[in-house]
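In this supplementary section we document a worked example of the pipeline. Step one takes a protein sequence of length 504 as its only input; no multiple sequence alignment statistics are reported here. Step two produces a three-dimensional model, which step three serialises into structure tokens for compact storage. The input and output of this example are shown verbatim.
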Amino acid sequence: MVARAYSVAFQGVEARIVEVQCAVTPGLPAFSIVGLPDKAVSEARDRVRTALTSMAIALPSKRITINLSPADLPKEGSHFDLPIALALLAALEILPKDVVETVVALGELSLDGSLVPVVGALPAAMAAAQENRSLLCPADSGAEAAWVNACQVIAAHSLGDVVRHYTGQVPLPPAEPGEVALIEHSRDLRDVKGQERAKRALEVAAAGRHHLMMVGTPGSGKSMLAARLATILPPLSAAEALGTSMIHSLAGLLDAGGISRTRPFREPHHTASMAAIIGGGRNAKPGEVSLAHNGVLFMDEFPEFARNVLETLRQPVETGEVMISRANAHVKYPCRFMLVAAANPCKCGYMTDPARACARVPHCGDDYLGRISGPLMDRFDIRVDVPPVSYSDLDLPSSGESSAVVAERVAQARGVQEHRFADHSDMLCNADAQGDVLEQVAAPDAEGRELLLRAAERFGLSARGYHRVLRVARTIADLDASENVRKPHIAEAVSFRLPSFALA
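The serialised model returned by step three reads:
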């Protein structure tokens, strides 16, 4: 007779239910696993056999066959150890078969029977909830998985605890959800001396989730400004935290025992490969663009990234999702992030300083920033110059608004946008507005429209650039607590769209 347990196989952020079938039949003693397992799954038989031996459970001298159904779906990862052990224990009539069939299980077994945490507990809990089943996982993964309220989560330290729980000897209490406290940032926007226009651009970008490009000489404060962007962003909402944590769970980044409400801030090095940025590899894992979902992707030394890496950013920036196509996998990940890029004006970095510039000015600037293609540059909503700060300004005391004050305005603007797009599930911020919705919410007054048309003709704005100016103007109006987009809002949005000194 066949005993059944259930687990999951991951395809992107989606967890598909896998039926683990176990049959113990007469024949030569053997333990085989079929159903397109990878090497880690095939090795489960040795871990399961040794773990059961440590519990003084001897396997019968019969043929044991484990089938992972559907058989044409690739099975990857060590989390199949626990469901295989459950199905085998049910086939040996140590555990009740009807109880085991109500559970979705995942977990890696040590040789002594203890359970090792695995990635993907949160997506697995979502899949279990959709199937009206409970989830069984290692104890260290329980706080993460229990965040899904619609699913009962049982977290065990060892296979022995699992046996005692399902036989009624020592029932385990349901796991409690854990939530990581918000990170207290030691940095503050007041630390940045001068750079008032760059600070304003940072505030507008944070309020509407607009993509930002900063160009300036080395040491002007571009990285310092970007690092303080996290201090003015609002915390993740419950829905955003769930979506972001699903990806981080698959990547094994939820190491603090629960869900974090802090927006992700990813800053890959410019030598990162395309698979590291976009995602991919043998198992089509999420890349930096997906790990920055609902947060910030900061790319310093932007022109130094490989050309093919930069060009692959076009589609994720525009659509908010990335499709990773491989010979054995076609996986889609969400990646609705805010791209913040920083670059020097030229190779040496001092094109605007006559005393320090090289002899190739201005051609060196054209060559250096020419590594960024026009279509990719057109996708930046805001472009701002970050000039060098004089030594006299560095001696001045901190001035300007603190991060807390700016963050309050950003939160109020985000609240207005949340109410505005409440009926549109695919729109969260002004940066997402498009089509008829954009024309309704960002329609400027007569003077503003006249100014925008003149600017579009004078500077040759593309259709994409025209709409991005409207989105930025709508965000500026929200920060100004204005119901309508007026001429000053359009003027400031156009100024952020103009080519910088290095791109003129």
